[in-house]
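## retry 2 of 3
previous attempt timed out at serialization; input unchanged, resubmitting
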Amino acid sequence: MKALRFTQHGDPGVLAIGDLPKLTPSADEAVVQVFAASINPSDVKNVEGRMSQTTLPRTPGRDYAGVVIEGPAAWLGAEVWGSGGDVGFTRDGTHAEQVVVPVASLRRKPANLTFEEASAIGVNFIAAWCGVVEAAQVQAGETIVIIGLGGVGGAAAQIAKRIGAKVVGVARGAAATSPYVDAMVDSQGPDVIERIRAVTNGGAAVVFDTVGGSMFETAIHMLKVGGRLVEISATDRREVTFNLADFYHNESRLIGVDTLKRDLVASAEMLEALRPGFEDGSYKAPSIAQIFALEDAQTAYRAMAAGTNGRVVLTPQTKRT
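## retry succeeded, writing output
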C-alpha cells in the first residue's frame, strides 16, 4: 500500500512515497480505499512542524472520500467521506491509497457529489459548522457578520443562509459576490465599523472571524448588545487587546473554536448533519483548482502552500466508473 510519508519536518521536499504493509484493522475499524483526499493549510503546517501534537513518522491528510473495502458487511462497498482533527497528526492520514478509520466514523457521502468534491468538504465545512451552529448557535432572523470569505467563511455563509440568518461579508476590497451574502463591507475601509453598524441596524448578533489577529479589535466592535464573537484563527497576531469595561457593558461573548479537538467520530456527526444541505442543493462544494496523483504530492503541497485559489486534491486511487 502506497502512502505519502514524512519522517522529519520541513518544506514539501521532505515528503516521499512509501510502501507500507497491508493495513490490519481491529474489530471496530474499517479500511477505506481512498479515491480523493484534499490538502488543507493545516496539512502543510503539519509537514512544516507547526503542529505540536504530531508524532513521526506520519502520513498526513485530514479529509477523504472513498469506498469501504474491509470492515462490517453492511459497509462493504459503501461510498464514504470523512475528516478528523486526529487523522494525519496522531494517527496515519488520508494521503495514501488506503486509510484505517473507526467504524463509528463511517458516513455515506452525498450521492450527488463526486469523490473529489466530497473530499474537499471536510475541514472547511466542519470549522464553519462548529462556529455557526455549535459555538454561536445562530438562529433564523439573526444577522451574522463573517470576516473573510475564503474556504471556511464561504462555507459559514452557506450554513447561516440555510438557517435563515442575514449574512454580511467583510472582505478586502469588498469585491467578492456570493448568493449567500446579503451585503458586503470593505475590511480596509476607514469606516468599516460604522458600515457594519449601518447594515446590521446597530450591530451583529454574531461575528464569525475567520482571520483573527489584526481583525480582532475591529470585530469586537461590530457586536450588538449580547452579541457573540467566534474566533478560529490567529493568522498574523497571537496577542490582542480590548477594553474589558466596554466588553462586559456590552454583555459580549467571546468563543474560541478548534477543529483539531474533533476526531474522526465527532467530525462524522457534523458531516452527517451537513449531508441534507448538499443533497438538496443548499450547499455547494468548493471549486477544485488542481488535481494531482499521489506521486505528485510534493507539487500539490507546494501549490497549496502558495495559496492556490480553490481546493487542491490528491487522487491516490483511480476511482470507479
